[in-house]
Amino acid sequence: MGMEDHKLKVFCTVAETKSFSKTSEIIHLTQPAVSLQIQALEELYETKLFDRSSGTINFTPSGELLYKYAKDILALYAVAEKEIGKITGLIRGSIKIGAGTTIGNYILPSVVVDFKKTHPKIKIHVLIGNTKRIMELLNAGVVDLGIVGEVTSKNKLTVEPMILDELYCIVPAIHPWAKKKIVSILEITKEPFVFREEGSGTRQIIEDYLSKHGVNISDLHIALILGSTGSIKEAVEKGMGVSLVSKWAVKKEVKYGSLKLIVPKEGKILREFSIVMLKNTVMSHAVDEFISYLKAYPYDNLLDFKP
After folding, report:
1. What are the residues whose beta carbons fall under 8 Å from the beta carbon of 272, sequence distance 6 or more?
2. Sign of CA dihedral 110, 303, 240, 131
3. Parallel, antiparallel, or unpaired for β 50-51 and 122-128?
4. Which of 54, 66, 67, 294 has the fewest CB atoms within 10 Å, measured from its CB?
5. Which pLDDT tens digit goes with each residue over 138-159?
6. Angstrom distance (rounded) from CA 73 to CA 5
7. Cα Rg of the chain (Å, integer)
């Protein structure tokens, strides 16, 4: 991509997020840099592209027109890159993946390492965040694909199932329940509970499961709310409470015996991790390859234990 396309990318992101601050986060530029890119385009076309008089960011007629073409121009670049890649037979380029915290920290690293062995020329960037954040990045076109748990609204998206997840109750090895195989949700509500933040896919699954069994969030004794599964595991190991986490997240701890897994008596807590893309985007050759790889990968080999 050349300089002009980078400006167009910035312009499209501002148009879609209606925010300079969000754009600067997404494109990893400072806010003044974002403003400068827009200014440069305005100077090029000698017209204002956004009207900011009302406190919100809206298109001027020129802005609206440019946006329509900018989307097509960026899509054509993607097609050109893909076609050239087919002729040269060399799959290069870069893939930006947005991954939910469970996937991004506990499954994707092994998969990416294996993929790189056969595709050394492809650069891979993984951005990790909770589901809400990843969907924002995807909608703004910052990542080529997202890998997350449940997706609430599927319009504008292509969603392809990738791998099944199961959540277990985790307790430290010294906990009175450590010898149990099964524990009721109602018993869990009596223990201090370590929870993920709002916007987390894991949290959403737990909330849905609890309410299905007549348990409200307010029935839990929430001891801590933490922003990652890693910090939750540490808190549980230190005896701060119990939690419900993905089986993929506790591979090491279960192997070394510092955490014990218990199945909820009321039934398995299952969810699907899916590959999520924006509809009608042209994927580069590299992204296509990676998606096929994700679908065919033998994930069960990553677990040392049979839950």
Report:
1. 149, 150, 161, 162, 163, 164, 165
2. positive
3. unpaired
4. 54
5. 988 889 999 998 787 777 889 9
6. 8
7. 23
Residue 304 has pLDDT above 90, yes or no: no
Closest CA to 120 of 91, 146, 99: 91
Residue 56: phi, psi to the nearest 5?
Answer: -105, 165
Which residue segments constitute the domains of the chain, with CATH numbers given?
Answer: 1-89 (1.10.10.10), 165-271 (3.40.190.10)
Alpha-carbon gap, residue 207 to 168, rounded angstroms: 14
Residues 6 or more apart in contact with residue 178 via CB below 8 angstroms:
171, 172, 260
Please report, as a single letter, which amino acid is at residue 126: V
- Tokens 């504008």 correspond to 156
Task: Using a pLDDT cut of 90, give the percent of the chain over it.
Answer: 59
Mean pLDDT of the chain: 89
* Amino acid, res. 35: S
First to last CA, the chain: 47
- Cite the DSSP H helix spans in the chain: 3-17, 20-27, 31-45, 61-88, 101-106, 108-118, 131-139, 185-188, 201-212, 229-237, 251-256, 285-296
What is the tens place of the pLDDT at every residue in 197-246?
998 889 999 999 999 999 998 999 999 999 889 999 999 999 999 999 99
The answer to whether the beta carbons of residues 211 and 225 sit under 8 Å apart is: no
Task: Quickly tell me which residue has 């998606």 as its tokens.
Answer: 291
The two structure tokens encoding residue 303? 């677990």
266 conformational bin, left if phi > 0, alpha if psi -120 to 50, beta if neither: alpha
